[in-house]
Specification:
Elements: E1 6-11, H1 15-24, E2 33-38, H2 48-53, E3 59-61, E4 73-76, E5 82-86, E6 89-93, H3 105-116, E7 120-124, H4 133-141, E8 145-149, H5 158-166, E9 171-173, H6 178-186, E10 224-229, E11 236-242, E12 245-250, E13 255-257, H7 258-296, H8 300-326, H9 342-348
Parallel strand pairs: 1-2, 1-7, 2-4, 3-4, 7-8, 8-9
Antiparallel strand pairs: 5-6, 10-11, 11-12, 12-13
Helix pairs in contact: 3-4, 4-5, 7-8
Length: 357
């Protein structure tokens, strides 16, 4: 059995509770280094290490840039910093957001797989949308193992469902069963005695997420230009089809999966409608001001024309307000893209399996 001593965990909504439960069942002498990304707001203050350290299992820390990787630790991503795994050390980077997040799950999974290959175990816990799915595909491509929380067991099943639908997952388990599987695959076996933390498994070009200002990254993204613009910087998005997963990346490195891009478009459309409603109501207010002055001067012909304009503008404003109250743009995104297998669809597709947005 392969000795796997790099565990990477991704979670979002409902992830704090899930991560605490998982860590509580891991022994303090676990012969592996654990890394975890939860989606934090950029300007928040994380107390997660203190919470996890109450369990007296693994030592939980927010690492510093360049810190050496040690077994028996769980390294937690800091708010507003991507957590990257390099051969033997940790890199923190304020690079472009991925899937609207920094820290994001995909950069952690991707760099761990590129640095440690088949030593990596990727774990997806509770969360919405699909951050982590592309990272899991990279872990799988480099020989790593994939574990996903059973969607029915997750507080928010979106991330587990998307992982199952789009990646060849090794294990789908309730949260309570994941720690024992991790223990079984991390404790040494005779076949794995030669494995060590410090040996990189592959070489790669510098990733734009690691150093977006590096001149080595002064090139266009892989793939072909799409018709879409980056919601964050307005640049052209390139379509990247890798591991049977379609995602988008702009020149400076902002990255989106299909569902995250759709969610951003949802927000952009709603914002545009609120702007339109505000403009129409301001116009109606200005027209009323003019109409009031005309009424004081007994300019009845002009007053009639302005009252017609007021009715016209108010009608359109009410239409937009009705649309906004109905929230017609909250599209139920399709979990199952072309990468999903028939077995995955049959087993997990149901009316209750909608992605939380």
């Amino acid at each position: 059995m392969i000795k796997r001593d790099i565990i990477v965990i991704g979670a979002s909504a409902g992830g704090v509770e899930a991560l605490i439960a998982l860590v509580n069942d891991l022994p303090p002498n676990l012969p592996a280094a654990v890394f975890a990304v939860l989606h934090f707001p950029s300007h928040s203050i994380s107390t997660l290490p203190a919470i996890l350290n109450r369990s007296r299992t693994l030592r939980a820390v927010h690492p510093v840039d360049g810190q050496a990787i040690e077994q028996g630790y769980i390294y937690l991503a800091l708010p507003d910093y991507h957590l990257l795994v390099k051969p033997g050390y940790i890199k923190l980077e304020r690079g472009p957001r991925e899937n609207r997040h920094r820290p994001a799950i995909d950069p952690l999974f991707r760099t761990a797989a590129q640095s440690y290959g088949d030593q990596v175990i990727g774990v997806i816990l509770s969360g919405t949308l699909d951050d982590g799915t592309a990272g899991l595909a990279t872990v799988k491509r480099h020989g790593g193992m994939i574990i996903v929380q059973e969607p029915d067991d997750a507080m928010f099943p979106g991330m587990p469902l998307n992982a199952i639908a789009n990646v060849e997952v090794d294990h789908v388990l309730p949260l309570a069963e994941i720690p024992q599987l991790l223990i079984r695959h991390t404790f040494p076996t005779p076949q794995a005695e030669q494995e060590s933390l410090g040996v990189p498994r592959s070489k790669k070009k510098i990733d734009v997420i690691e150093d977006p200002t590096n001149k080595a990254n002064d090139h266009l993204p892989d793939g072909k230009p799409s018709m879409f613009s980056c919601p964050e910087c307005g640049g052209v998005l390139w379509e990247v089809d890798r591991d049977h997963l379609l995602h988008f990346r702009c020149r400076v490195g902002h990255a989106y999966t299909l569902q995250t891009l759709l969610a951003d478009q949802d927000e952009a459309v709603e914002e545009a409608f609120w702007v339109a409603l505000r403009a129409l109501e301001e116009r109606a207010s200005l027209l009323r001001r003019i109409a009031d002055r005309l009424a004081l001067r007994n300019h009845h012909i002009m007053l009639s024309r302005y009252e017609e304009q007021i009715q016209h503008v108010e009608k359109h404003a009410e239409m937009i307000r009705s649309l906004l109250m109905e929230k017609p743009f909250a599209i139920e995104t399709d979990l199952f893209t072309e990468g999903a297998s028939g077995r995955d669809r049959a087993e997990y597709e149901s009316p209750d399996a909608a992605v939380q947005t």
